[in-house]
């Protein structure tokens, strides 16, 4: 088992990515700290399943953009399941936000959910990981950390901020045996068509802009996270791994693979 007795903190457990991480990493012997907006009610069957498989699970409902709540969460979780070995930050709040019309409240809501929470969780997890001289931090960001969406600049800004947070943390925490990496996620099979925009056609027929015309799944994301969380990724630090099937390499003047 690649994660036997390791404690994994998943920041958004109620999401499709959160449940995929939960099930895949449980098969490798992990225990869990889960932040759940529903307090666990929306994922009750999933919790029962992994607990029957032998995983210990601590569930909380904290505002991860507030350090006092995160510190309380870590203190309580340590008593229940232990200190964190792997942090998976998978917050992904999207709100329509154009530069010329976005209000401050919307901008801050997206930045707090996606970026500030990453910073605060990294501080809290990093303290525990430094004490053990080991750990893994995985941020699920987006291809839009690099490429504009055309419909939510606040989202792109928040993911870009996490990208640079990861690089800074990789330098500092790397000195204590902690690996810090990002997964830049593209469109997935389970997601609704993302980022409708009058400015760009990037998501028009987006399925066919993946070279093989086959979208990835949350299962693919969980497999990559497992690798980054395992000892096999010992020498991977400060990396941005694009998981988009080649979507961003699409050329508009090439024929798409439509069957």
Automatic annotation (TrEMBL):
CDD domains: SDR_c (cd05233). It holds the Pfam family adh_short_C2. Signal peptide: none annotated. The lineage of its organism: Bacteria, Bacillati, Bacillota, Bacilli, Bacillales. SUPFAM superfamilies: NAD(P)-binding Rossmann-fold domains. This is SDR family oxidoreductase. GO terms for molecular function: oxidoreductase activity, acting on the CH-OH group of donors, NAD or NADP as acceptor. Belongs to the short-chain dehydrogenases/reductases (SDR) family. Keywords: Oxidoreductase.
